[in-house]
Design goal:
Layout: E1 2-13, H1 17-28, E2 33-37, E3 53-55, H2 63-83, E4 88-89, E5 93-97, H3 107-118, E6 125-127, H4 128-134, E7 145-149, E8 153-155, H5 157-170, E9 174-177, E10 181-187, E11 190-196, E12 200-209, H6 215-218, E13 226-236, E14 251-254, H7 256-259, E15 261-263, E16 273-277, E17 282-283, H8 295-308, E18 317-328, E19 334-337, E20 344-348, H9 358-369
Bound molecules: flavin-adenine dinucleotide (FAD).
The site of flavin-adenine dinucleotide has 37 residues, from helix 1, strand 2, strand 3, strand 13 and strand 18.
Length: 403
Amino acid sequence: MSHYPDKFDFLMVGGGVFGLTAAIELAKRKYKIGLLNPDTIPHHLAASSDISKAVRMEYGSDTEYFRMVEICIDRWKHWNDLFGAKLYHEVGFLLLCKHPFESKRQSFEQTSCANLIKAGYALDRMDANAIKQRFPVVNTEVYMNANFNPKGGFADATLTIEKLANYATSLGVQILQGQTATELLIDKGQLWGVKTKEGVIYHCGHAMVTAGPYSILLLPELAPYMKATGHPVFWLKPKDPTPFTPPHLSVFSADLSNTGWYGFPWSDKYGIVKVAKHSNGVDLHPEHDDRQVTENEIIEMRLFLNDAFPALSEAPLVYTRRCLYTDTLDGHFWIDHHPETKGLLVGTGGSGHAFKMAPLLGEMLADVAEGGSNPFSTRHRWRDPTKGTTQMEEARYIVGGKI
Ligand SMILES: Cc1cc2nc3c(=O)[nH]c(=O)nc-3n(C[C@H](O)[C@H](O)[C@H](O)COP(=O)(O)OP(=O)(O)OC[C@H]3O[C@@H](n4cnc5c(N)ncnc54)[C@H](O)[C@@H]3O)c2cc1C
């Protein structure tokens, strides 16, 4: 066992969007920062490694997430300039509804639009004819109502992680790839270091566990409050991409809170159309369980496309992936000091919706790490959600109300 020569003020255990944004913000505040991650960053199994993540202000009646994304969108645009790359693509967000907007079943869409109006945004409501005009691939026999919000779109997640990692390094963060934390070293209730599978001990004043679903393996005391759940992602390759290309299609949700289905327009960079499901998912052990998408899930996806985008329903399926949420029982993130161990912090619990918050996450994590608070950190602090706790993220289609 060797000892790493440097001692860090803060050592991040995991280089996804939680770990990297925290490292950057703490480095800006002049702390000595290290970051451990297995293999390379972006890690191929990380939730933060993906071609696209939706950036939507539509959070139902939840004004706090709405406000967070409103701030984030302006900062995503700043990152585009800062990094000289298109991380955030403002192609808009299309809310598709199966039922009249006023119906109870569309409460997510109704309350999302109410928040837009309250914040001074003009709605762009469409009936079946108007949808057919502007988004001709939508099956308006089924989806007959919609609202289009031009302020929204998607982030190129993997590119964002690459840029954030380079930026962190430029700020003096020591990114230690090929290092897998296996043990948090604690003496008399005080954390003093982290041991890795590769046989190195890292000394630090504080360690922040930002290892996504693996955080629960490093900190089993998190298991009553969160779990790893696997969610299917599908890449399709339509012969003629034009009708799926902005402005003919944007990022969309298809009666999301009642079906879980959402997706992205044609990507010139990757040559596909991506659809995915924001629902219960399947419980998975991050290390042991198989992550294959099943035949049944593919059939379900085809049935959805047949319903929503018939022109896409026969398109070749070129790739599937089951990606892992670090799913808290209430759907809020988990950002706090460990209640018993000094010098130990946790930054995780993305619950399938944290990537869009990247431009705000860093300061939320750093403010809490410094012993303070952040205007948005209150509901993400250490808490005691019980098994009966209801999922609070209103966009998510949760069968039985609980994950
Ligand atoms: C299918 C899917 C779709 C999603 N869609 C959206 C979306 O549209 N919009 C949105 O806002 N959010 C979305 N999300 C959520 C978002 O991707 C996550 O909330 C976010 O990326 C979580 O980041 P993280 O840093 O916690 O975890 P990760 O990105 O998983 O990073 C954890 C890192 O820790 C490393 N690690 C693991 N074990 C160890 C160890 N022992 N030692 C050191 N390092 C370790 C891993 O290699 C990895 O790099 C989606 C997530 C999934 C799975």
